Amino acid sequence: MFKILFLTIFTVLLFFPAGTLSAGEMEVLTDKNLAVYFNSPVRSAAKEVAEMYPKIKVELESTFGWDLPLNPSVILINNSRRFEMMAESPLTVAYAVPNRNLVVIDLTKMRINPFSLENTLKHEICHLLLHYHIKGHNLPRWLDEGVCQWVSHGISDIIMNPKQSLLNKAVARGRFIPLSRLQRSFPRDKGPLLLAYEESKSFLNYITGRFGRDGLINVLDSMKKGEDVYTAFHKSCNFTLESLEKDWHESLKKKMPWLAHVSFYLYEILFGLTALIAVYAFIKVILRKRAYMEAEE
Fold first, then answer.
1. Do residues 237 and 270 both lie within one domain?
2. How far apart are CA 268 and CA 261, in angstroms?
């Protein structure tokens, strides 16, 4: 236990830059499963994490059929400003660092619907599980995020606006981000970043809807054995990844009613109508002026 605690503290100190987190300010709760770092005001949340982790571990092992022999470190941050200094984006609510077996959660954002501590923790632990079994750079970012959203009931790493779908706009305008551009990383700008998460979630829903849970697990099992993502999809689904991506795009277009398509072009339509009205009014003034001059003559 002392060895685990020492390694965990060493990981925390090594990971966080000087000034962003003081180990002396934090307490640690350890057991045989994990170590939870927290400030004293959020002790109850730390206990929740320790209590819910065994259940999450069992659920993930059951879903994937893989073991999870990890003792992760979970850091709970109760200061949004401090968390944003560590995160990639101000939209981030939590993130995982697989090569350090580490999860960091912004507790202040757990009050935002639909986030919950349990689903967020499950999402991040899923990242650790996937990277433990699929080595190196063989796991594309879009698949990594898509699978973790799938197992955590649609919960992502970032704050999404459920009332505004950028994916629907992309469907209407045919401006998807190709999956090939989401292999290593996601865009940093807000709009493309949100779209990348939406696409990842949507494509995984399409795959599981078409091939079932077993189809997805077969893909991941192939990648666990060392196959790249293109070979894994072709072997498991009998379709190339490119053709599946194209079919997914087509399925989204079919689901979107024509009225929704029109709504996304409403500004352009109104602008065009305004221009036509202006041209019509101009022509009408010219004709009236000409008729008046002819009458005068």
1. no
2. 12
Q: For residue 250, with 0-12 CB atoms within 10 Å meaning exposed, 13-18 middle and 19 or more buried, which class applies? A: exposed
- Check whether residue 23 and residue 111 sit in a common domain: yes
pLDDT digits (tens, 9 = 90+) for 63-80: 999 999 999 999 999 999
27-30 and 35-38 as β-strands: parallel, antiparallel, unpaired?
Answer: antiparallel
Beta bridge partners of 188: none
For the beta carbon of residue 131, count every other beta carbon within 10 angstroms: 18
Q: 70 burial class (0-12, 13-18, 19+ CB within 10 angstroms)?
A: middle
Q: Which of 67, 60, 72, 79 is nearest to 29 (CA)?
A: 72
pTM, full prediction = 0.80
Compute the C-alpha angle 198/200/206, nearest 5°: 100
> Within a domain: residue 176?
yes
The domain containing residue 54 runs over which residues?
1-133
Any domain includes 145? no
231 lies in a domain? yes
pLDDT digits (tens, 9 = 90+) for 29-65: 999 999 999 999 999 999 999 999 999 999 999 999 9
* One domain, residues 31 and 97: yes
The answer to whether residue 128 sits within a structural domain is yes
Q: Are residues 127 and 1 part of one domain?
A: yes
